[in-house]
Records
---
Amino acid sequence: MQNKEALTEENKTKMNLDKCKIRFKSHYLAAFFLIALATSVFYLTGENSAISEEQDSQKQNARNEEEPKARNDSVLSCNLFSGRWVFDNLSYPLYKEGECSFMISDYACEKNGRTDLKYQNWKWQPRDCDLPRFNGTAFLEKIRGKKLLFVGDSLNKNQFVSLLCLIESSLHQSSPKEVIREDNLFIFQATEYNATIGFYWSPLLVESNCDDPYTHRIKDRIIRITAIEKHAKHWTDADILIFNSFMWWLEPTMTILWGSFGSNDAIYKRVEMKLRRYEMTLNTWSNWLEININRTRTKIFFMSLSPYHFKGESWDDPQHCYNESEPIWKENYWGIGTDTEMMHAAESALKNLERRGLKIEYLNITHLSDYRKDAHPSIYRRYSQPPNEEQLATNPKGYSDCVHWCLPGVPDSWNEILYSYIINSL
Ligand SMILES: *[C@@H]1O[C@H](CO)[C@@H](O)[C@H](O)[C@H]1NC(C)=O
Ligand SMILES: *[C@@H]1O[C@H](CO)[C@@H](O)[C@H](O)[C@H]1NC(C)=O
Ligand SMILES: *[C@@H]1O[C@H](CO)[C@@H](O)[C@H](O)[C@H]1NC(C)=O
Ligand SMILES: *[C@@H]1O[C@H](CO)[C@@H](O)[C@H](O)[C@H]1NC(C)=O
Ligand SMILES: *[C@@H]1O[C@H](CO)[C@@H](O)[C@H](O)[C@H]1NC(C)=O
Ligand SMILES: *[C@@H]1O[C@H](CO)[C@@H](O)[C@H](O)[C@H]1NC(C)=O
Ligand SMILES: *[C@@H]1O[C@H](CO)[C@@H](O)[C@H](O)[C@H]1NC(C)=O
């Protein structure tokens, strides 16, 4: 219990920081509005085609039951990231919110009072193939004796908790369902499989003044752009590493520190250069991986940007995740929370690493998640200082979390994709 509560601390800060950023962005509202106008003409004909009707999906579902595709290498040659959301309340959700011992209130939207629960019933359907059905037992067998570690920010923690919920029904009833924290590391031991599933908090990958998993409500982010060892030494013994790091870089200005925190000859330089500082960090990260990763042992994944839905310039009214109960139905929708320049920086860092002999799987979940404006906690989140009813009634959007995802929900689909890689390629 204690550990679980501890696990939730970080998010309150994250939300506030994110909100600052969104406010800053509102200066560009006019520009986005123009772009939205131009593009909406384009999309008019595409309405509704990203999502199929229920009947269709139930037929689809019936077909899947007849011929389960548990292990099929062709899944990996298929583009799992292009497809559509299909309503399927027979198979989804894959677990119940209230039955997951690992659930934390940050993501427990139903417990927090959300009554429209349709967000739990969508299945991600790739266009050219079917995702294998998530089988917790098969997954745990696959990682027997191994260590799987998520590394990054609270979106990665969202996915970590989702994965624990997905496997829980495959654990012995008597085995402890506990996450133990040690500094930045949150660890769950699946003892009967001798497997470890963990999450390591380092939202900027390199050292920064936001490295405390609880206390990182810091206006001026300071990063040591070439210093990663302090965190990375905790990653070397993992067999599967799943990184993410986008959100925290979107800050318009940050301070770069040359030297170490508190030393006399340290140089602090406040910079904009959003893209360059991200590239420099990815470079530090890549160099570390190239030297320290055992290519035979460790399989590495990198999650693409998880989109947020604070501003709706590019979909129609209402312009916010608050009170949204349906996905976006415009085919090829891209949200304004999707910084393609930053994504390209990450993609080219991964390509570079591949040229240097280190293959990293890029799980390109941005676009598929972009459709899901309905799936954020909004006001059904955890509050560090809960607003009173009047505050909430007058300004629900101001109190909404449009960054993280309710569970069961979108991160389950990310994990189904991760599952298909792990089950087919390890
Ligand atoms: C794998 O899937 C493809 C198409 O999805 C199918 O044609 C093929 O027969 C499958 N192979 C196996 C071994 O199930
Ligand atoms: C699934 O959805 C359909 C249509 O909305 C509804 O008729 C049915 O009762 C639902 N089934 C379950 C198990 O919720
Ligand atoms: C899940 O995987 C286990 C171990 O591979 C297997 O025994 C079991 O039949 C699978 N369950 C389903 C529903 O496919
Ligand atoms: C558990 O896994 C570790 C590697 O992670 C291995 O060193 C150890 O021998 C395993 N223990 C058992 C009992 O299999
Ligand atoms: C890399 O990992 C493999 C498989 O676990 C192991 O056999 C090998 O000794 C490791 N190499 C180094 C240099 O540690
Ligand atoms: C929420 O959305 C529904 C329609 O989907 C609408 O009737 C209702 O007024 C909205 N509530 C608020 C508080 O915006
Ligand atoms: C990621 O997916 C998007 C949308 O499907 C696509 O446009 C983009 O090219 C993909 N990126 C990579 C590196 O595959």
---
Amino acid sequence: MMKTLLLSATALALAAPVLAQQTPTPAPTPPAADTSTNKSDMSFSKIDTDKSGSLSLAELKMVDVGVTQADFDKADANKDKTLSMNEFDKWAADHKMSKPGKAG
Ligand SMILES: [Ca+2]
């Protein structure tokens, strides 16, 4: 503890003149996964949150909360319980993902 304090004190003493001359601009990097108000741009890679290369039902629900297991099974052509990009494309084309004016 004392060592750390001494070190930071030394660092501060060394940095003080520099800090006095150029005011450091704090650049807080905002987290990438937040404030997604516009969901019109839903691509496969975005929905595939765990980057497994395929979509689970939970992930598909990000596109449409009303999607059911039956819908999922229908889209899951090879019945491996996941949607490949191909299967998702077909589902999306079938499903007409564009829902204008739906907020919330
Ligand atoms: Ca599949």
